[in-house]
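This protein record is not my work; I was only asked to verify it. The record follows directly below this note.
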Amino acid sequence: MALRELRYFGDPVLKTVADPVTRFDKSLETLVQDLLDTVEPQGRAGLAAPQIGVSLRAFSYDVHGEHGYVLNPEIVELSEETHDIDEGCLSVPELWFPTRRATYAVVRGVDLRNEPVTVEGGGVMAQCLQHETDHLDGILYLDRLAADSKRQAMRQARQKDWFWNR
């Protein structure tokens, strides 16, 4: 089991658009296993490769007993219905803010054999799929907050010991 060290808000890798996976080799298998191992501890729902310092389009998830990974994911469907849901992030620990998300999402990508996979769901799974795909586009949930919440979040983040630029 390989729990990888997390990257925190302020680290440039989190604001960089991740590269597509093009090599389906042993190193990719290791990355996927590390993503699965690192998302496994209690209280974690998803983990994108940039959060462990790897700028590749890959994420893992572990939501209500459903666990897996997606390579080169793309959101292909979002419900028109949205809600504000408390959201946090492993790369922005201890901070939770209401974030507007679609209530249902569908992501398509590929697996380690470059075979198509689809992951879909509502509630927390929909939130996870949107959140992790955002990471691969260099977007943190803080970027989606309403102006007042974003100012508050930025102020709080800069005071935390984990803040990368301290």
Observations:
- The chain has one domain: 12-156.
- The longest strand covers residues 66-78.
- The chain has a mean pLDDT of 95.
